[in-house]
Structure prediction request, 138 residues.
Amino acid sequence: MFKRIMVPVDLAHADRLEKALSVAADLARHYGATVIYVGVAAATPGALAHSPAEFAAKLKTFAEAKGAESGIATEAHAMTSHDPSTDLDPTLLKAVGETGADLVIMASHIPNITDYIWPSNGGTVAGHAKVSVMVVRT
Prediction:
């Protein structure tokens, strides 16, 4: 049913994504699908990486480790954004097309009052993606 599962990851907070990462790995094993970990970083140096190339290398290492740990095929797809905090949603939606994903699995937080003012990334992607989106509450 699914061949390419896209999973947005924030490498700075990967420990908070375990539930969504586990769901993606389970579905990938079930369907024989590839999991594509998508990371978005700014072009400017940051705490995680000094350049887009360094960020892409760290994301690739993360994907390889998750693949070995879970026994699944994985890929990494690094994206660069002028300001990931403001244009994360359109960047992730663009990544759906670039990766050829037919399912997106995203971690999300428990809704709070600010979600009535600013929608969550998972909610926005689910509302606009042309593929199925599973939002996993952390």
Notes: The mean pLDDT is 90. The beta strands are 4-8, 34-42, 73-81, 103-108, 132-137.
